[in-house]
Each structure stands twice: as C-alpha cells, then as structure tokens.
Amino acid sequence: MNVDFKGYGENVATFIAKNTVKEGDLVKISDNFTVAPCAANDEISGVCVGVSDGYAAVQLSGYVEVESNKKIALGCTSVAAASATQATSSTTARKYNVIYSTDSKVGFIL
After folding, report:
1. pTM (two decimals)
2. Which residues contact 79 (CB under 8 A, 6 or more apart)?
C-alpha cells in the first residue's frame, strides 16, 4: 500500500507576486494582497505553486513537501523558513503537523 498526502485539504489563492517570487518558494505576506519570498526565520504563509504575469498561486493549506536544511522533528513542530527554498525547525515559529522528514526534505500540513 502506498501512502500519499498530496491533494489533502489543498487551498490555493492568487496574490500579487513580488518580482522575485518563484514556483516552489516559501512565501510570506509582504503587502496588501502581495507575497514575497521568505527569508531566514520568517513565518511561512504558504508555498508558491505557480507564477504568471505578476501573480502567484499560493497554497495556503493542505500537505506540502519542501526542501529543508536539516531533519525536523515529527509531530506538532515549529517550522520556519531557512530561506525562500528551505524550511527549518524553530523554537518560536508557528507549529505545523510534520509527517515526513529527512535530512533534506520535510512534509507538513499547512
């Protein structure tokens, strides 16, 4: 039996994209209706799943798998951005249900 959480509770909304946002980026709300790439220690608002003509489709809920800079503890764990493309564990960030973790990838429910 294969286990797959892709598609679970996905919710995607369209935002104005700062010109540096790329598909796959961890993003934060940066201005009214606007997202920008996360920087180190930023709270994660969502994951960009597409960019077109100055707009970003951002997944705001559901299961996501992103790069990580280390193995992150499973369960209800504080996760923040290490950069626009990597997540990391944190002592102060929002908690997510981490259900998959290796030294270079993490899967959690937004």
Report:
1. 0.93
2. 44, 72, 87, 88, 89, 90, 93, 94, 95, 96, 98, 106, 108
